[in-house]
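Appendix C. Worked example: Ligase-associated DNA damage response exonuclease
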Amino acid sequence: MQILQFTDKGIYCPAGNFFIDPWQPVERAVITHAHSDHARYGSKHYLCHKDSVPLLLLRLGQDISIQGVEFGETIRYNGVSISLHPAGHVIGSAQVRVQQDNEVWVVSGDYKTENDGLSGQFEPVPCNTFITECTFGLPIYNWQPQNIIFNNIRQWIYNNQQAGKNSVLLGYSLGKAQRLLYHLRDTTEQIWAHGAIYITNQLLRQQGWPLPDLQRITPDTPASAYKNNLVIGPPSAADTTWMRRFNTYSLGVCSGWMQVRGHMRRRNADAGFVLSDHADWNGLLQAVKATGAEQVYTTHGFSSAFARYLTENGIPAQEVKTAYGDMDEEPAETTSPHNNEEGL
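Step 2, the predicted output written as structure tokens:
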């Protein structure tokens, strides 16, 4: 049974008359998480996990109609059952389970299988058909345990302090920034942040998330304030006037793309840390097999290669083209008039 269809507006359930992560405005949108390539402005009503509600209100505007639910809670639209399950990608991220009669489809959204301490543990959901991302769907992408990566970042910060340099790390304002702040909160006396990261951090702190208090960087912040402290900004700040305020600094980029030699050089970075909020090759394979799916659709990233590998190994799979981003985490914030990723 074809419960879900791939349309020019997104993944559509005809029987339930709803879309999952639509990339055009629709009547009813079920949202996996608050990144801008999955949650777009203009739909009449949004359904998401309760932890994504404040993030969507921040990014899409306070005037949207939105409903938040718990993991495992069942919602029914025209006889079709919907429930959300942990994806482990970023705070509030969810997979969408859709059931009609005895047929079950699961849309993964974006996910990672290592628990980062904030986003929850990815939960494989048994299904007949699994729609999976495969941003890093090649065997070369294999992540080290995050405790090793953060130990490397701490050593880098220490070395910079000894050399009298500021440590500037770039990571997306939703997801990567929270992981950095949570795991590096005791590395320096103060942590300074770009406005986009500061605003998201303050919102999540208000919701009770265990994140450190930040100092917001403004045009009036003296250069001496950053000395020996950690600075966190979004990737969009690279090669902008925002970076010029830090005098002598070392720039570190946190991204799964740092696995491939040459990406760090292209980003003009002094250090590259292979830290991703997406599953690596082994994580993708483990997730697919754990669902027991008889059919798999692959989206964004190395979708063609991953589908071919699955098919050659006994799991029927095919690639589906979508409007979701192919970047490591989150594309530039351009989908809502309420976003201000560049702002101080």
